[in-house]
Design a protein that fits this description.
about 220 residues, alpha+beta, 5-stranded antiparallel sheet
Length: about 220
């Protein structure tokens, strides 16, 4: 499966409903994504600024962000084993394993030299991503890989996809994609808007000029 097709399948994966999930009132990510095609995600902006009554909100497309990764034969085999498995009780002495089956993890550990470098959840830090990511940075035979789940529910406490394995092509540090950073400060956003590097929209998705952005921000201050 191509990388973009794998990402799309995760974005529309039905992650169900959970006791701590208020999606019945506010909607769930996977329900909103279900009406979109892969072409819709391809056409959406990589990043945009929503200008509303509370100021500026930067929105970075998870679809485009994850397309900074690739897949290889190791990923393909792992992802095949980790689709609808019978046993989700994978465990490792380093922890940080979520959404991983024992069969898929045993495949990696028995076939390669695997180390878990760190775990992460983008909800726990500054992030402008359109959906929360949870996972781990791994080394497999001294090459960097990411185990990633996309949050498809409403409340962040539940509703994650099965974990999928991606290979790092260029990026192997704290950022998956160097251009689409996970977070920007307001002065950086304003500079990008003024220079025309990022599109600005209102709460209804209507495009705004820099002059309209300035006028809106004056009203909110």
């Amino acid at each position: 499966m191509k990388t973009n097709e794998l990402i799309y399948s995760m974005l529309v994966e039905n992650t169900g409903s959970h006791m701590c999930d208020s999606g019945g009132a506010y909607g769930r990510h996977h329900e909103r994504n279900a009406s979109k095609t892969i072409e819709d995600f391809e056409k959406e902006p990589e990043e945009e600024i929503i200008v509303g009554k509370y100021g500026l909100e930067r929105n970075v497309s998870v679809y485009h962000y994850l397309n900074g990764l690739t897949t290889d034969n190791i990923c393909d085999k792992f992802n095949e084993l980790n689709t609808n498995p019978d046993d989700w009780e994978a465990d490792d002495e380093d922890g940080y394993l979520y959404g991983v089956s024992r069969e898929a993890w045993d495949y990696l550990k028995c076939s390669f030299d695997v180390e878990i470098e760190r775990g992460f959840n983008t909800y726990n830090g500054d992030s402008d991503l359109s959906q929360t990511l949870q996972g781990s940075l791994l080394t497999i035979n001294d090459e960097y890989y990411y185990l990633i789940q996309i949050h498809g529910g409403c409340d962040v406490r539940g509703g994650y996809t099965d974990a999928k394995l991606f290979a790092c092509d260029t990026y192997s540090d704290d950022r998956i994609h160097e251009y689409l950073q996970e977070y920007k400060y307001e002065d950086e956003i304003l500079e990008d808007l003024q220079e025309g590097y990022i599109n600005a929209v209102d709460d209804d998705g209507k495009g705004l000029t820099w002059k309209q952005v300035e006028q809106t921000l004056e009203l909110t201050n």
